[in-house]
Amino acid sequence: MTVSNPMLQRPMPVKTPTTAPFWDALAEHRVVIQYSPSSQSYVFYPRVRAPRTLADDLEWREISGMGTLYSYTIARRPVGPHFADAVPQFLAIVEWDEGPRFSTELVNVEPDDIVIGMRVKPVFCDYPEHDVTMLRYEPADR
């Protein structure tokens, strides 16, 4: 999905050396997150040392991006002035099948169809004018 509206100057994420593999993969419509062999677990958000072990063993691995809706809220008031035309927003936390949780937004869904525990799949929203792709989610049965 390509999203473009020059009138909206919403804040966009800034790629850093630590987060670049995540953002670069999203641009290719893939999801990659870090994996720590020392803790035998996937890790998100991107960081330089593994949580719990502080090991320098993090590696990037591709995941399906599929998950389960862990929590959500419907923001009926804009979360900031740049989002005044984007309400209601379905702000969500998705638990990836690999374990970590990801803060995101649900799209292509009606409020009455949102259910905690429902399966969701990734939607890649491209913002070419900002050279960024955002990861959103929709019901997996679509």
Automatic annotation (TrEMBL):
Residues in the signal sequence: none
Domain of life: Bacteria
InterPro entries (alphabetical): ChsH2_C, NA-bd_OB-fold, Thioester_dehydratase-like
Domain ChsH2 C-terminal OB-fold: 60-124
Protein name: Putative nucleic-acid-binding protein containing a Zn-ribbon
Lineage: Bacteria, Bacillati, Actinomycetota, Actinomycetes, Mycobacteriales
